[in-house]
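Students often ask why we bother encoding 3D structure as a string. The short answer is that it lets us treat folding as translation between two languages. Here is a chain of 248 residues written in the first language.
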Amino acid sequence: MELKNKKIVVTGGTSGIGLAFAKKLAAIGNQIIIGSRSKEKITEVVKYNKNISGHQVDVSNQESVERFYKQAIAEFKNIDIVINSAGIMRHYNLLDERVTPKKLQAEIQTNLVGTINIDQVFLPILRKQTESMIINVSSGLANLSSAAHPMYSASKAGVHMFTDALREQLHFAGEDHVHIVELVPPLVAETNLEKDVNSQNTPVNIKWSDLINEAIKGIEENSIRVDAGMAKEMRKMVQPILIKTKGN
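And here it is in the second language, the structure alphabet:
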């Protein structure tokens, strides 16, 4: 899919991967709407970046997502690409009885439910386009879980499975013009995710600029999955285990 003159929605667009995507895609000739919980951060990004506008959204809240969709359609009329990069990552000890269910569920609500909410609300307009795309950001931890980050691993495994299922449903419906891409990074340097975790417990990361370049290459080739950086190696490690398990 050619990335030029496209109308693109990016969640989590005020920091990290989302912001990097927004800046890069705007710079190469696309119109971008970013979504974020922080109105102040949106204002800051829009102020210093041409071709980027933004609206507040809490992806875990269905009403907020529907409002965000209406704002995006009012501004763009049509949408070509949706990038789900909103996400949070926390380090929880499941044996610690002080950790509340609400805290544990927060990553599921933002990372998994948020992705589902955005995809479900934007899918009808994307299906009407001649060619369109959804990019869901999962993680290398979707395939090789981290004991230090149990809920993040679980949420991203859910994103991986949901993305596969959505792609298959569109295929069986004869709607392959809606490309469904899974972007699989390890941790990305300079993001809010990395700031929230102990570096000794994290997989080797990748600079966001390298990730975005790999992602754009995959998008332009209509890849169904883009494994970036160490995520490639993590998948190679897991694949033999999966094959052996299925064989049993």
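Translate back mentally: The chain is about 50% helix and 15% strand. Keep this in mind for the problem set.
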